Amino acid sequence: MSELYGSAHRLLQDEHDSRRLADRLESMAHSEFDPRDQEFIGKAALFFLATVDDHGRPTVSYKGGAPGFVRITAPNQLIFPSYDGNGMYLSLGNIATTSQVGLLFIDFAEPRRLRVQGTARVRSEPELLAQYAGAQYVIEVTASHIFVNCGRYIHNLAENMLSAHVPDANGRQPFPNWKRIEGLAETLCDSDQARVAEAGGAIPIEEYRGEG
Q1: What confidence tens digit (pLDDT) does each residue in 71-129 have?
Q2: Nearest one of 18, 11, 29 to 187, comparing CA atoms
Q3: Which domains does the chain have, with CATH numbers?
Q4: Strands 100-107 and 77-82
């Protein structure tokens, strides 16, 4: 049984012959931060936070700070500060009500994304607040699923360039390198497997350098 996919997801996956790939990607999700995750999060100056209220309505917030403002505090936990905002307290209120969160970290220079899903709680102990000057609260997240997302549609904001993978006027786009990663390539649909072969075959994950 899948913890990520329901019947609607499966219908779409089967329509596009991506069930094998989806299952492999789910199997690669982990609940503890590995060294690459820790390095990526430790350098992050921003991320996007999704929360859900007691009516099931989602909201997404931008969270920014100096690199290092998100800190790994346990194999499956991280913390980040909540600074003064617009006074609505939507994210914090949602966390206090339902606890369900999703965090999306993006590197706009080396196209890469990392998702963290789990539960969160609002904390205000003085010893935690002391770690972040100006923080009103500290949010503690316990991860249940940590996984990398395809980064090919991330625009290079540093060079003010759109992603090369945005389809052109004829719908053409480069074949993504992530589909060539060993362990994923063999789960692709037949047409994508043929393109992997045309590109030179599968590559070790260590050789994957994002989507340029």
Answers
A1: 999 999 999 999 988 889 999 999 999 999 999 999 988 888 999 999 999 999 999 99
A2: 18
A3: 7-29+154-207 (no CATH), 35-149 (2.30.110.10)
A4: unpaired
Task: For residue range 38-49, list pLDDT tens digits in order.
Answer: 999 999 999 999
CA 91 to chain centre: 18
Q: What is the DSSP string of the chain?
A: --SS--HHHHHHHHHTT-HHHHHHHHHH-BSS--HHHHHHHHH-SEEEEEEE-TTS-EEEEEEE-STT-SEEEETTEEEEEE---SS--HHHHHHHHH-EEEEEEEETTTTEEEEEEEEEEEE--HHHHTTSTT-SEEEEEEEEEEEEE--TT--BGGGTB--TTS--TTS--PPPGGGGBTTTGGGS-HHHHHHHHHTTS-B-GGG-----
Question: Residue 72 and residue 70: Cα distance in Å, rounded?
Answer: 7
104 contacts: CB under 8 Å, gap ≥ 6:
47, 48, 50, 113, 114, 115, 149
Cα–Cα distance for residue pair 158/109, rounded to 1 Å? 6
The closest of 81, 118, 89 to 3, measured between CA atoms, is 118
* Stated pTM of the model: 0.83
